[in-house]
């Protein structure tokens, strides 16, 4: 019985860890989303500009003048990078979710095998 | 998110245990809190753009062409100056890029931003209303559940 209790403890800890990871991943997914939105807005803005518009880039505290084509390329490049990052993070999220689901099942199984002692390691999903 | 399911599963709510219901309630609470915070952020952003519009209208026009203005170097140190160009402004379009625009175009730019945010706010408001409704329904069912079951074994949420 004590052995099972210990196993349950270990599983719960791992589960908690996975949940933490999941939270972190979701946060970076959200951050990427807002970056993507911002870059898309800039892309749209550039598309509506005249070719000879004055575009500046903020580098440190100074504004440096930049060619429109250069600026557009920079934004396109960023969007591509962000898209790849989103794909990567989403895969991570899915993997973590799968893992934690499997773990949860295992925990529930162990818990159901020892009636009358559920109170110690309640898993609130 | 999962909130949309609740409308469809209204009748199934009664089948859930008190513990499951309070989990649903907690999730809805969290979502609502998050959405309300986003709503406030959007509102703040909209106010900021409105402030820019006002600044262009009052601060950059032919009326102030030759009038001296005080330019802040720090928050407590100012130097006198005059506006060299009252037709063009440089607008922050995001992600570190700035574009030189005529005051007319800049006004248009900010108005578009304000409108866009206004639409987002409207959408968000509708969603928040829907979520609050869902939450109320869940709370009702939960209350009935707790009342009818009395101090049963499922009455202690995790």
Automatic annotation (TrEMBL), chain A:
<protein>
    <submittedName>
        <fullName>Gim complex subunit 1</fullName>
    </submittedName>
</protein>
<dbReference type="Pfam" id="PF01920">
    <property type="entry name" value="Prefoldin_2"/>
</dbReference>
<feature type="coiled-coil region">
    <location>
        <begin position="1"/>
        <end position="113"/>
    </location>
</feature>
<dbReference type="GO" id="GO:0005737">
    <property type="term" value="C:cytoplasm"/>
</dbReference>
<dbReference type="GO" id="GO:0051082">
    <property type="term" value="F:unfolded protein binding"/>
</dbReference>
<dbReference type="GO" id="GO:0016272">
    <property type="term" value="C:prefoldin complex"/>
</dbReference>
<keyword id="KW-0175">Coiled coil</keyword>
<dbReference type="InterPro" id="IPR002777">
    <property type="entry name" value="PFD_beta-like"/>
</dbReference>
<dbReference type="GO" id="GO:0051131">
    <property type="term" value="P:chaperone-mediated protein complex assembly"/>
</dbReference>
<comment type="similarity">
    <text>Belongs to the prefoldin subunit beta family.</text>
</comment>
<dbReference type="InterPro" id="IPR009053">
    <property type="entry name" value="Prefoldin"/>
</dbReference>
<keyword id="KW-0143">Chaperone</keyword>
<dbReference type="GO" id="GO:0051087">
    <property type="term" value="F:protein-folding chaperone binding"/>
</dbReference>
<dbReference type="GO" id="GO:0006457">
    <property type="term" value="P:protein folding"/>
</dbReference>
TrEMBL record, chain B:
<keyword id="KW-0175">Coiled coil</keyword>
<dbReference type="InterPro" id="IPR004127">
    <property type="entry name" value="Prefoldin_subunit_alpha"/>
</dbReference>
<dbReference type="InterPro" id="IPR011599">
    <property type="entry name" value="PFD_alpha_archaea"/>
</dbReference>
<dbReference type="GO" id="GO:0051082">
    <property type="term" value="F:unfolded protein binding"/>
</dbReference>
<dbReference type="GO" id="GO:1990113">
    <property type="term" value="P:RNA polymerase I assembly"/>
</dbReference>
<comment type="similarity">
    <text>Belongs to the prefoldin subunit alpha family.</text>
</comment>
<protein>
    <submittedName>
        <fullName>Prefoldin subunit</fullName>
    </submittedName>
</protein>
<dbReference type="GO" id="GO:1990114">
    <property type="term" value="P:RNA polymerase II core complex assembly"/>
</dbReference>
<feature type="coiled-coil region">
    <location>
        <begin position="18"/>
        <end position="45"/>
    </location>
</feature>
<dbReference type="GO" id="GO:1990115">
    <property type="term" value="P:RNA polymerase III assembly"/>
</dbReference>
<dbReference type="InterPro" id="IPR009053">
    <property type="entry name" value="Prefoldin"/>
</dbReference>
<dbReference type="Pfam" id="PF02996">
    <property type="entry name" value="Prefoldin"/>
</dbReference>
<feature type="coiled-coil region">
    <location>
        <begin position="107"/>
        <end position="134"/>
    </location>
</feature>
<dbReference type="GO" id="GO:0006457">
    <property type="term" value="P:protein folding"/>
</dbReference>
<dbReference type="GO" id="GO:0016272">
    <property type="term" value="C:prefoldin complex"/>
</dbReference>
<keyword id="KW-0143">Chaperone</keyword>
<dbReference type="GO" id="GO:0005737">
    <property type="term" value="C:cytoplasm"/>
</dbReference>
């Amino acid at each position: 019985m004590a052995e099972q209790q210990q196993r349950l403890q270990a599983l719960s800890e791992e589960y908690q860890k996975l949940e933490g990871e999941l939270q972190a991943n979701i946060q970076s997914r959200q951050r990427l989303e807002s970056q993507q939105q911002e870059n898309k807005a800039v892309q749209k803005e550039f598309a509506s500009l005249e070719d000879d518009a004055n575009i500046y880039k903020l580098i440190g505290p100074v504004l440096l003048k930049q060619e429109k084509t250069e600026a557009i390329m920079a934004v396109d490049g960023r969007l591509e990078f962000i898209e790849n990052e989103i794909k990567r993070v989403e895969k991570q999220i899915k993997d973590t979710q799968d893992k934690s689901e499997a773990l949860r099942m295992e925990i529930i199984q162990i818990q159901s095998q020892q009636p009358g002692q559920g109170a110690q390691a309640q898993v609130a999903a | 998110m999962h909130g949309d399911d609740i409308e469809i599963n209204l009748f199934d709510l009664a089948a859930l245990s008190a513990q499951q219901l309070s989990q649903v309630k907690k999730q809805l609470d969290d979502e609502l809190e998050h959405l309300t915070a986003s709503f406030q952020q959007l509102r703040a952003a909209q106010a900021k753009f409105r402030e820019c519009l006002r600044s262009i209208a009052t601060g950059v026009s032919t009326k102030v062409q030759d009038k001296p203005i005080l330019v802040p170097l720090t928050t407590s140190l100012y130097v006198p100056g005059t506006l060299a160009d009252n037709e063009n402004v440089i607008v922050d379009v995001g992600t570190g890029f700035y574009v030189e625009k005529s005051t007319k175009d800049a006004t248009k730019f900010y108005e578009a931003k304000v409108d866009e945010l206004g639409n987002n706010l409207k959408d968000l408001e509708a969603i928040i209303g829907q979520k609050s409704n869902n939450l109320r329904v869940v709370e009702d069912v939960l209350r009935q559940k707790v009342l009818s079951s009395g101090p049963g074994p499922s009455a202690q949420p995790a």
